[in-house]
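Example: Aldo/keto reductase.
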Amino acid sequence: MEFVTLNTGIEMPLLGTGTNTYGKLERRYDGEITGDTSELASAIELGYRSIDTAISYRNESVIGDAVKQSGLAREEFFITSKLPGTPEYTASREAVEKGIAFSLSQLQVEYIDLYLIHHPWDNLEEIVQVWKVLEEYVDKGVLKAIGVSNFDVEQLQYLLDHARIKPAVNQVKSHAGNWNDEVIDFGRQHGVVGEAWWPLSGVDEAARAQLTEIGERYGKTWAQVTLRYQVQRGVIVIPKSHNSERQAANINLFDFELTDDEMLLIAKL
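Written out as structure tokens, the predicted fold is:
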């Protein structure tokens, strides 16, 4: 595993697992929560230690159960969760505190490694007020790092201008159809690490053919090349699979390195 050092000084794995359909009926995002921990248990057995969830996924309790059942120490894991950008969780200090308390309870933990504002909304001043509450929980050690998700350059700049503690991460959609370079590069300039959700989507046939050709040189798949491109440029990835073989393939990225020419070619996809 390779790591990136966040602006808080803590290390975060460059690869983790998404979970937004884990523990749900028929593996649907909106499916009923079944409590099934087998998918995450498989990932943990394969070596995944960074786990990404959110209040809106409704399955924080499943993640908490899987971590407990693993028998590994809490400190072995890097857990990310997210506060929804909706009035129920953002309208007041009490609403924010209620959301944090809910996440802690569902995850069955005393601290969360990374806590994100899941989505921005129109009122930037209100976002800052929510952020100030999150900062207080960093001071208490309850949240080890805080960040944002789906913020564009303007929204991120406003928060940077008004924050006491800078966002550690901006989790955005980034894949071969749209690497989202502008916001990732902007964040990098300000010490905010980019994190890619849905990193294996958006790949058309032409791009897949080029990625496959590169992968053949290393005995890797197009998907492994795609993920390697991201981590090699310092972007965290959180692919998700319910299949143990694909989980194993997705984490098997750290025994090869793309050349500069290959990186440039992939950047243009």
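The two ends are 26 Å apart (CA to CA).
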